[in-house]
Write a structure and sequence with these properties.
Protein name (chains A, B): tRNA pseudouridine synthase A
EC number (chains A, B): 5.4.99.12
Largest sheet of chain A: 10 strands, mixed
InterPro entries (chains A, B): PsdUridine_synth_cat_dom_sf, PsdUridine_synth_TruA, PsdUridine_synth_TruA_a/b_dom, PsdUridine_synth_TruA_C, TruA/RsuA/RluB/E/F_N
CATH architecture of the largest domain in chain A: 2-Layer Sandwich
Subunit structure (chains A, B): Homodimer.
CATH superfamily of the largest domain in chain A: Pseudouridine synthase I, catalytic domain, C-terminal subdomain
Largest interface: A-B, 19 and 19 residues
Number of domains of chain A: 2
Oligomer: homodimer
Helix content of chain A: 10-25%
Keywords (chains A, B): Isomerase, tRNA processing
Structural class of chain A: alpha+beta
CATH topology of the largest domain in chain A: Alpha-Beta Plaits
Number of helices of chain A: 5
Strand content of chain A: 25-35%
Distance between the termini of chain A: 22 Å
Shape of chain A: globular
CATH class of the largest domain in chain A: Alpha Beta
Number of strands of chain A: 10
Chain lengths: 247, 247
């Protein structure tokens, strides 16, 4: 038995999220269908670094699965990409130690959130960026984001009614990149709570619009209360970009 | 009565082309639906510079229509973009002389054709670029394209069984732009026959792959025979970029 680790990308537009669900098209279902075909009808479990919600994209999601087949990695790459639907691509695959676990062994993740600040949004970006017509004060957003850096209880930035008890996480980096009308937020940390990046993006959007002050952020973190933070930003602006493991 | 000229963009992925068709979602149908709503149930004809096929995109299609309403242009822009589906956007609108005709008065058009040369195509570009894994000799494609410049009978680059009799057109410019893994062909001319840009793109792809020599192109043009040219390249790589009118 071999354990394989694959890095995959998917366009979240056509999926009800990553995780298997009855009667829904999900990334996990599509992956399992293809692995079942390759394994001649035998069901193969797929483990991802974590779920992503409906409409959320991934450029560097990581999965693992076990196989008894001895196909070279180039053969796996080709077979998976031939059999998978075009909105999921496997970008790399490698054999890993049998102890590797795509979910339990993550040491960090990078997410990207994209806004389109055009007056009229392009029909080509409508599923890939969140449209904000109002001018955003990016310097204020940058300043506000500094309050997130470090190790904090991120309860204010976690969807209510989640089962997770320990809400302490570490954020290493929050950066804003401007590319013409596009604004990207890149956020990197040890781990993220449910909806955490989207609540951060939503709260920082309110800072950018002048509805909240940059200085309020440390108070919002300290409140450890979901109601203290801003709205959850839309799913389709979010990309899971990198999953880190101890090398 | 006023005549309005609008420049529109659409993502062709979700349309059975521009032109109205029974039981199909087309750009013209969506435009007419919205104009009917604005005109309180009165049907308004919409004239475009020309049709585009299913899956073909537009960044600068031009349409005209007549209205009895006296709304300022900013109001038209807002109303149309609120009512239209997100995969069609109106980028500008202006009042023009009643003699203006979006189709009959065109003096030229620019199209763009996009290839993605990544080894593994991104799930985000699958509907917007044509994937070519094999290396393309772009210099050979550039050299071959020179044979198209000028005024020629373009019968070799026109879908067979078309009703058009005069197949003489003038091409002013064919340029190739490389942006990392993306390859774009920009082609500008007085007018284009049915499938002309796609047959040119397909034939030049064959040159790029080494299946045809650049020097063959002038012979292909001279043959004035559709069978002399290469395959029709896929629709989803094609963009109608600019429509020109006498100013």
């Amino acid at each position: 038995m071999k354990r394989l680790k694959a890095t995959i990308a998917y366009d979240g537009s056509g999926f009800a999220g990553y995780q298997i669900q009855p009667d829904s098209r999900t990334v996990q279902v599509e992956l399992m269908k293809v692995l079942k075909t390759i394994h001649k009808g035998k069901v193969t479990q797929v483990v991802a670094s974590g779920r992503t919600d409906a409409k959320v994209h991934a450029t560097g999601q990581v999965i693992h699965f076990d196989t008894e087949f001895s196909i070279p990695m180039s053969g796996w790459l080709r077979a998976l990409n031939v059999l998978l639907p075009e909105d999921i691509r496997v970008n790399s695959i490698e054999e890993v130690d049998a102890s590797f676990h795509a979910r339990y062994h993550t040491t960090g993740k990078t997410y990207r959130y994209k806004w389109d600040r055009s007056q009229i949004i392009s029909p080509f970006t409508r599923n890939y960026m969140v449209h904000v017509k109002q001018p955003l004060d990016v310097d204020a957003m940058r300043a506000a984001a500094q309050a997130l850096i470090g190790t904090h209880d991120f309860s204010s930035f976690c969807a209510a009614n989640t089962a997770v008890v320990d809400k302490v996480r570490t954020i290493w980096r929050v950066e804003f990149e401007e590319r013409g009308n596009e604004l990207h937020m890149v956020i990197e940390g040890s781990g993220f709570l449910y909806n955490m990046v989207r609540i951060i993006a939503g709260t920082l959007t309110e800072v950018g619009m002048g509805r909240r002050k940059a200085e309020e952020l440390s108070g919002i973190v300290a409140a450890a209360d979901r109601d203290a933070a801003g709205k959850t930003a839309a799913a389709h602006g979010l990309y899971l970009e990198t999953v880190m493991y101890q090398s």
